[in-house]
User: Fold this.
Amino acid sequence: MRCDLTPAWKNLQQHAQEFASFDLRTAFAADVQRVQALSQQAPCVFADLSKNHTDAATEALLMELACQTGLAEHRDAMFRGEPINNTEGRAVMHWLLRQPEGSLPGALAEPLQQVHDTLKPMLAFAEQVRADAQITDVVNIGIGGSDLGPQMAVLALQDFVIPGKRFHFVSNVDGHELAAVLRGLKAESTLFLIASKTFTTIETMTNARSALAWFQAQGGTDVSRHFAALTTHVAAAAEMGITTTFGFWDWVGGRYSMWSAIGLPVAIAIGAQGFRDLLAGAHAMDQHFQSAPLQANLPVRLGLLDVWYRNFLNYTSRSIAPYHSALRRVPAYLQQLEMESNGKRVDRNGHALPYGTSPVLWGEPGTNGQHAYFQMLHQGTDVVPMEFIAVKKPTHSLKDHHELLLANVIAQAQALMLGQADEGGHKHFPGNRPSTFLLLDELTPTSFGALIALQEHRVFVSGAVWGINSFDQWGVELGKVLAKDIHARMASGDVTGLDPSTAALLASMNSMR
Assistant:
């Protein structure tokens, strides 16, 4: 049943009206067990949810909503390999990419074996590149999920990256990006990874052809040694002279593809065992999501909290603040993960929705954000739920830095909740601002894998409750189709049939070329 038609939805609407006077400070004073009740340890991730605008009654009603919308059944259908991506007729099995070999019976045994039959040579190739002292630079050319995930992971796991090799990521069709990367490279010491499932993505293929032209202009001749492709279109790669290819399957969505061959730059960076550890951490979170009771299931609790905020308390955005510089690309990755997955206006049957879906996600690493947008979070007119991510143990030995960092993240969560009274007004902090605190013991491939899988499943939960298909992305396509038309018109200057604004912009562009 669609969420807005359930009894629980109506009960939550009533509860939200009663919740208008809720205050975190009062809630903590009234319940000495609040932290324990609203905290949870999941694989590699501890979550403190106690500073959120929720209580036991809210969670109980949200659990009713989960049951009445068939959340568990939808989750189980995904893990059975059913085609829950109904608009494309595809299964959703990125979780299979981190499933141990030989661990599934029946219909899933064959695709699981295909996963490992691809993983093994991919990791062997990664080790080969790691052992090749001549290759000093690896350039990943992709876009969207073929860029954001691997780039985020290589940065996050920089303490595990092999010395002597540099990793570059090119995604934007803006030639300034590729030109800036190529400026510091030599053909004989560079490996290019072309990441495109179909080998037709216009931004990726434009950059790939330019990289190939640069390589040949620099005297490079052995394309097969210096280029590899992460694609299912082997023939198209061969036309470019690329003979080393690693594929993946149509049940792997782009924003969920870091665990597949798209993760090759990660495997080169942290090694085969590091990549297997990354998969193992994600698999541990998969098992938690699949088997833990809903009331003690961290992805479920987070996803339901997102629904509560979006639809009942009318909080339209969430800010992500990772207090670890290596996690600086996590907010950008989560933007795509959530907003491309759940930024939908119709349900799975194509019917327009009368309620909001994906919030706007945004953020920067702390403590940088404190000196930028935190002013608005503390004293602005909008309430923006915060999500802090912190790591207990540093990998550097610089005195006092990590203690100061952790003091800041704890203090920010405290300040948002407590506020500060000031009769003059300008120094008044209203407080009662909600936040979630996610804590890792250490930042390792295993813990990082668990953290990202947690976020994937959380997005699944809110999308399932909203009754939308979280696994297509038709909204990406229209602008790409129109861009082809505009690009063709640039040479001719033909503006026939265009709206006045587009025609004027095109004419202005052409007049300056």
